[in-house]
Design a protein that fits this description.
This protein has 8 helices and 11 strands. The chain has 270 residues and is of the alpha/beta class. The strands form 2 sheets. Strands 9-8-7-6-5-4-3-10-11 form a 9-stranded parallel β-sheet. A two-stranded antiparallel sheet has the order 1-2. Helix 1 (31-41) packs parallel to helix 2, helix 3 packs parallel to helix 4 (126-138) and helix 5 (156-168) runs parallel beside helix 6.
Length: 270
């Protein structure tokens, strides 16, 4: 069985190689609000800060975006930063700028090297994805290619195709986040993540959202998901767990998994 691959930033594994990486969102509307979030979250020791720039009122001002990103990094005390514009069709906030301006913002952020990773949706045109991939790669910025469905969990073939598409387009990380309608939908997502771990050669993030999907946030790393999202101060998606509670649950899960692995290696006694 293939081990869960680690997400890297600047050539080093996030979270010092521990699984899963804990990502906390920043959703402030202004620079002051975002930096206040950073101040409150950093003492809780997340592995990665996700700046959800679709919440940011000045998203159309590239110089403001870059200056704020640099201020986040200064305040973050070494915690890496992921820059994410979530498309409104995939659960993001409505924007007052079009896709060309979004692409220009991402390009400028990569060239300024003011973040460690970016996230861009697979729903964008292949041409835009490939162009941004070229810029991010040239500037050593990791790129997550993602798919989100806030309405339902697609069938197995669709889930498999999203992970495969991220790999095929050259992503550093492939992400799939979907909404469960039934309990079995959570199992479908975990199974798809497990299959993708064997089928593609990049790190993965597989998440089932909402209350039903909370199992994936705590146990997904066992099935191939290298990261999970937690609330540091404000959440960005349904089902996110407070970072303190998530860390406690992960400690129990790791202990249980480790104990069972040790027992399985022991020879049976007569």
């Amino acid at each position: 069985m293939q081990e869960t691959r680690l997400i890297q930033a600047r050539g080093k594994p996030l979270g010092a190689g521990a699984l899963p990486v804990i990502i906390t969102p920043l959703v402030g509307k202004t620079r002051a609000e975002v930096l206040e979030e950073v101040t409150d979250i950093v003492p809780k020791k997340p592995d990665l800060l996700e700046w959800r720039i679709d919440f940011f009122q000045a998203i159309g001002d590239i110089s403001d975006v870059i200056d704020t990103a640099l201020a986040i990094r200064r305040a973050a005390g070494g915690v890496p930063v992921l820059l994410t514009r979530r498309n409104v069709t995939e659960g993001g906030q409505p924007l007052n700028i079009g896709e060309p301006a979004v692409a220009a913002m991402y390009k400028a952020a990569c060239e300024a090297r003011c973040v460690e990773l970016i996230d861009y949706e697979l729903s964008n045109t292949p041409e835009d994805i490939k162009a941004l991939r070229a810029v991010s790669k040239a500037n050593a910025i990791g790129m997550i290619m993602s798919y989100h469905n806030f309405q339902m969990t697609p069938d197995a073939a669709t889930l498999d195709s999203k992970f495969a598409a991220a790999s095929g387009l050259g992503a550093d990380v492939g992400k799939v986040a979907v909404m469960p309608i039934h309990e079995r939908d959570v199992l479908e997502l975990l199974a798809a993540t497990s299959r993708a771990r064997e089928a593609v050669a990049i790190p993965l993030i597989g998440l089932s959202m909402g209350g039903l999907g909370s199992l994936s946030r705590v146990m997904g790393w066992i099935y191939g998901s290298a990261a999970t999202f937690a609330v540091g101060k404000n959440g960005s998606a349904p089902g996110q767990i407070a970072i303190e509670d998530l860390r406690a649950a992960l400690a129990i899960a790791r202990q249980a998994v480790g104990a069972n692995k040790r027992r399985s290696r022991q020879k049976p006694t007569r």
